[in-house]
From TrEMBL:
This is peptidylprolyl isomerase. It comes from Bremerella alba. Residues 223-359 form the PPIase cyclophilin-type domain. Belongs to the cyclophilin-type PPIase family. Its EC number is 5.2.1.8. CDD domains: cyclophilin (cd00317). Residues 1-22 form the signal peptide. Transmembrane segments: none annotated. The keyword Electron transport does not apply. GO terms for molecular function: peptidyl-prolyl cis-trans isomerase activity. It holds the Pfam family Pro_isomerase. The keyword Isomerase applies. Keywords: Isomerase, Rotamase, Signal.
Length: 377
């Protein structure tokens, strides 16, 4: 089981709402508002009860696995994975129920505690849009701001809300609250990125109005990613990428290197970071109009100037240290939640998990001209 999944299982296993442990019938008359609140509570309590049963079953299978003979292990692994999947499928439903419960009862501590734990998990998984939404839901319902400021810095930074990240970071420092390395880095970079983001937002508005940039869909083992390509600023890189997609070069290739809080790299037919299409292309990151690395950016991987070919990476969050060093040539416009699901792995690690893959890459929109690689000598 992936470490991040195990972490979530153990974390939420410790949380069982007080209403699940002890529920007393209320004999008083029920007002309509109270009835609506009770309905939200019932859904949340019921699902948390189901979650508790799943956790108990997972622990039972783990214990049986430790004591079982070799011949029984495959069956137990299959059983464990099936129960785990049912738990992972249930979690989004519990989250929705907790949201509904909090809307009906803003002071409900069980719902707040559950959503705070989901927030922590979302930040760990680089699911920043979800984390950002949860931060504001908790703040709007009276959760202690001091307990959320650090998470707000990271969530806002990861969702490209740099002014908000900067403001939250200033509050942290003024209140002399604990600041870890990740929060500190995000807070400091937020100030630097505000100006870059203003330019980026203006470009995106113009692109949305023109609505003519090429788009590619990557169907992956974790769901679809729709990517809009920056042909205006990186025509050669886009030409090469579209050409490879149309040749089905990327179909079946792994995301061989996926690093937490950083990026997911793919496009290597060898799967170890050393492969390519058999030629190199020119870098376009040195041009005055070169785009910058924000959340969900598509950029070229290379081993030095003009050595890119087919390998690319998709960023989980802004990575300004790569600006001017790698050619940005697109961004994820649909399916960013699937990007964050890609299995974290480092090739050559002692226990490297199985890589997620591109099942199929296809061009879903392009301009009316040929797309060819401009090969470097």
């Amino acid at each position: 089981m992936p470490a991040r999944t195990l972490w979530l299982v153990l974390l939420l296993a410790c949380f069982v709402p007080a209403t699940v442990l002890a529920q007393a019938p209320d004999e008083a008359a029920v007002e309509p508002e109270a009835a609506a609140s009770a309905g939200a509570n019932d859904d949340f309590d019921k699902m948390m009860g189901e979650w508790k049963v799943i956790i108990t079953e997972l622990r039972r299978i783990q214990q049986a696995y430790r004591l079982a003979p070799e011949k029984d292990l495959p069956k137990l692994r299959k059983e464990y994975n099936e129960v785990l999947k049912s738990g992972m499928d249930l979690l989004p439903k519990i989250e929705d129920a907790a949201v509904n419960r909090l809307a009906a009862s803003p002071d409900d501590q069980d719902a707040k505690l559950f959503l705070a734990k989901v927030l922590s998990d979302s930040l760990e998984k680089d699911d920043y849009p979800r984390a950002y939404r949860l931060v504001h839901m908790l703040l709007d319902n009276g959760f202690d701001e001091n307990e959320l400021l650090a998470d707000q810095v990271v969530a806002a930074f990861g969702a490209d809300h740099f002014e908000e990240a900067e403001t939250a970071f200033k509050k942290l420092r003024e209140k002399m609250l604990p600041i870890d390395e990740r929060v500190g880095q995000n807070g400091m970079m937020a100030t630097e990125l505000k100006e870059k983001w203003a330019r980026e937002a203006e470009l995106r508005a113009k692109e949305a109005e023109a609505n003519d940039l090429p788009r590619v869909k990557l169907s992956t083992t974790q769901g679809d990613l729709v990517i809009e390509l920056y042909e205006n600023e990186a025509p050669d890189t886009v030409g090469n990428f579209v050409n490879l997609v149309e040749k089905k070069f990327y179909d079946g290739l792994p995301f061989h290197r996926v690093l937490p809080h950083f990026m997911a790299q793919g496009g290597d037919p060898k799967g170890d970071g050393s492969g390519g299409p058999g030629y190199n292309i020119f870098c376009e990151c040195y041009e005055d109009d070169a785009r910058h690395h924000f959340a969900g950016t598509l950029s070229m991987a290379h081993a030095g100037k003009n050595t890119g070919g087919s390998q690319f990476f998709l960023t989980f969050q802004a990575t300004p240290h790569l600006d001017g060093k790698h050619t940005v040539f697109g961004r994820v416009v649909e399916g960013k939640e699937n990007l964050s699901k890609l299995t974290r792995r480092e090739p050559g690690g002692l226990s490297t998990p199985t890589a997620d893959r591109i099942l199929k890459a296809e061009v879903i929109r392009k301009r009316d001209h040929a797309y060819e690689p401009n090969k470097a000598p």
